[in-house]
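Contributing new records

If you add data, match the layout below exactly. Sequence lines come first and carry their own label; structure lines follow with theirs. Keep one chain per record. Anything else will be rejected by the validation script.
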Amino acid sequence: MTGANAGIGYETARALAGAGAQVVVAARRDSAGRDAAARIAASTGSPHVSHVLLDLADLESVARAATDWSGPLHILVANAGIMTVPELTRTGPGHELQFATNYLGHFAVATGLRPALAAAGGARIVCLSSSAHLHSPVVFGDLDFRFRPYDPRQAYAASKTAMVMLAVEATRRWAGDGIHANAVNPGAIATGLQKYTGGPQTPVERRRERPPRCS
């Protein structure tokens, strides 16, 4: 499970471990993954919780993690993400950071682990999306904001639209391997993801922010 060291990912990993699943916590910092795995094991009593180093923004890190995996994989939860990074930031290869982390890294993880998923004989992929996907399509002509002004919210929205598309296409193309994917909108949940936005907002709060209409 990606991003299982905090927030939704941590709670999901803890619930799975508590139900008896063997859980692997994937985190971009080794210390964070190790600490989360230890806390999950302690709180659930499960001896089957481990961690792996995985930086989704670094495709070499993704490739190493996929290559090092052994055995079948029954559930891949593509949870990790970053949100509304204020300044335009690109990865080494030149990809906008939110799209690279939230989508490209997960695409690479899923394709790299496809043999392990197929070996499970009925695997599931869970792609964490967001209602934000309603606010932007995937702008294929300018994924990295080279020809248009950078908008952090649109960048995030496009990455979540791409995650929905990943779920659709993974199921369409890999159903023959027994692999099925679903996109999940978890709703507004207070986690570290909102550090650039001031926290999650309810629909009522969003309505209150709108300027009054002129009569």
